[in-house]
Amino acid sequence: MSGPRRVIEHRNEIRLVGRVAAEPSVSVLPSGDEVVTARLVVERPPFPAGRGRRAPVDTLVCSAWGQPMRRQLRMWLPDDVVEVTGALRRRFWRTGDGPRSRYEIEVDTAVRLARGAPGELGTASEASPVASS
Questions:
Q1: Which domain of life is it from (predicted)?
Q2: For the whole model, what pTM was predicted?
Q3: In the Cβ-directed half-sphere of 38, how many Cα atoms lie within 13 Å?
Q4: Is 117 part of a structural domain of the chain?
């Protein structure tokens, strides 16, 4: 006889801190929904000394669907340092060449940590948090 089955909660939680790569873009989908996307460049840990290569980065697409988050992402400028939380999503759509998909981060919260130059984190007074409702 087996005991009670243990319930394990599944999680899909993302937290990123990185640099905005370019101006966010606004798209209106065929459904009429609006989405704002921004590319976030997140540095990986540096290579061990003496390897002679630049530290690699990951470039991730962040998307905002709700009005508060769309407004927040629209205010971002290239090289802003931001923190986002959200979930990894796979989005599907059709083109003339057939079905397409991509993974992106669906933003739940967004905080601008600093304006401008990469690697210069701002002070608490510069942070502008917004959480989705």
A1: Bacteria
A2: 0.76
A3: 31
A4: yes
